[in-house]
Design brief:
It is a single chain. Helices cover 32% and strands 23% of the residues. With 460 residues, the chain is of the alpha/beta class. The strands form 7 sheets. The chain has a 7-stranded mixed sheet. The chain has a 5-stranded parallel sheet with strand order 10-17-11-12-13. A 3-stranded antiparallel sheet has the order 14-15-16. Strand 12 (201-206), helix 7 (217-229) and strand 13 (232-236) form a beta-alpha-beta unit.
């Protein structure tokens, strides 16, 4: 008897949640499970700003998929760059650059998202993101390098430009990034006696009229107050007109001499979704409430890449926001529905009420809204860190993160650069591989041998 082949694309909250649930619910004889991911870890994305700030080490937020010997899922080290849904085959580019094909009976698409960018002059060449572990490590190196170079420079204009940092995006990622990195430079400059601390300028820019509008007016104002007291200049209703090696020009005409533009202006579904030719909603793959993809046999989608109906809101057309808490729960729900499909049982729609929002602004500052309760300051910070700590999947990760927090609180930072990508610009494309995907014609070149044999394969 052949076992159905289940391919899960992506090792984020959604993909890993799905795989772990499948492993618990399916006996080995019932299915072959394969996870396709360039990295053999699950990244705890909400803590990336703390990695960039040096509060946490990179390893502490990269939860290994191979640590436990109990897990039987086969892990293929590569990214899916094309899918032939007619032949039921994925084309995978491995980390060695080779292309391999992986046939499937059920495909779970959880490729996540990439940083949303726009056709702004110079953006592709000069913007840095905060979406991957490598980007967080790179940004930390880059920011400390600007302090080093400013300290070594005898040119006042160059020194001022290197000490001005611009973050675009007033959502959670941008606000936390600006707040955590501002603390990094505030503390680090004490080790640079030649630098005037007043020269360090942080700008947070967003086209929206409010900072983190999901938090509501009261908490948004509290967050604004925390940032401005730290000296971060927040500009709302403004975006970037252009950027080059020496300056960022805003749409209100201001020119900010700067060597650092950190771009966190939202996310977009993985470019893989656009290669399927299926219906999308706001750029995300349209799925049913059970998270299968209409018209594509055996295909499921969830997380940031899917427009999952938000039944808990009770509003027609509402879709779940791209948050970690939804992704984790959707992973389990898809696994349950997939198991039900294999066993001929009833499936269930996904529904989950938002538990609230937490924003860690570094130090003793935060704004949080757990279960609708509005908090700011130290209490909100405690809730934010408590939530993230509890959400970490393994005890090893929890121990590492807690140890890092305590060590940083007691001993501070050494402000060491690793030299990561020191000789390269480190653009969004370099880290997020947004140009790696194949055209439908290229996909068919790889899957031609499977197209005549659809439905005849299987694992043993």
């Amino acid at each position: 008897m052949t076992r159905p082949r289940i391919l899960v694309v992506g090792a984020g909250f959604a993909g890993v949640g799905c795989v772990r649930r499948l492993e618990r619910r399916l006996a080995e004889r019932e299915a072959l499970i394969t996870l396709l991911s360039p990295f053999s870890y699950q990244l705890y994305l909400p803590l990336l700003p703390q990695v960039a700030a040096g509060v946490l080490t990179p390893q502490s937020v990269a939860l290994s998929l191979r640590r436990s010997q109990r897990h039987r899922t086969r892990i293929v080290p590569g990214g899916v760059v094309g899918i032939d849904t007619a032949a039921k085959v994925c084309v995978v580019r491995t980390i060695s650059g080779e292309y391999v094909t992986e046939p499937y009976d059920h495909l779970v698409l959880a490729p996540g998202s990439v940083t949303r960018s726009f056709d702004i002059p110079g953006l592709a060449e000069h913007a840095r993101g905060m979406k991957t572990l490598a980007e967080a490590v790179y940004i930390r190196d880059h920011v400390i390098a600007q302090l080093d170079l400013a300290d070594a420079s005898n040119d006042d204009e160059e020194r001022a430009a290197r000490l001005r940092f611009v973050v675009v995006g007033g959502g959670y990622a941008g606000t936390e990034t600006a707040a955590c990195l501002q603390l990094l430079t505030h503390n680090a400059v004490k080790r640079y006696p030649r630098l005037d601390p007043d020269l360090i300028k942080w700008h947070l820019v967003d086209i929206a009229p409010k900072l983190m509008p999901e938090l509501g007016d009261k908490l948004g104002a509290a967050a604004m107050d925390i940032l401005t007291k730290r000296g971060i200049e927040v500009s709302l209703g403004v975006s970037v007109a252009s950027v080059d090696e020496e300056a960022v020009t805003l749409t209100d005409g201001r020119v900010l001499p700067s060597r650092t533009l950190i771009w966190t202006a939202g996310v977009a579904a993985s470019p893989l979704i656009g290669t399927l030719g299926a219906e999308t909603l706001r750029g995300r793959l349209a799925v049913s409430a059970e998270m299968d993809v209409p018209g594509l046999d055996g295909v499921w989608a969830l997380g940031d890449a899917a427009a999952v109906p938000d039944l808990a809101k009770g509003e027609e057309g509402a879709i779940c926001p791209p948050t970690a808490q939804h992704a984790m729960r959707q992973g389990k729900a898809v696994a349950d529905n997939l198991v039900a499909t294999l066993r001929g049982e009833a499936r269930h729609p996904y529904t989950h009420k938002d538990l609230g929002l937490v924003v860690d602004l570094g130090g003793m500052d935060g704004v949080s809204k757990p279960l609708g309760v509005e908090l700011h300051g130290a209490a909100a910070q405690a809730v934010a860190r408590g939530y993230h700590w509890a959400a970490l999947r393994t005890n090893v990760a929890k121990t590492r993160v807690m140890t890092n927090w305590l060590l940083n609180a007691v001993a501070g930072d050494d402000y060491v650069r690793t030299g990561f990508l020191a000789s390269k610009a480190g653009t969004l494309r370099d880290f997020e591989y947004t140009d790696a995907y194949l055209t439908p014609e290229q996909v068919r070149e790889h899957t031609g041998s499977f197209r005549g044999a659809v439905g005849t394969g299987g694992g043993n």
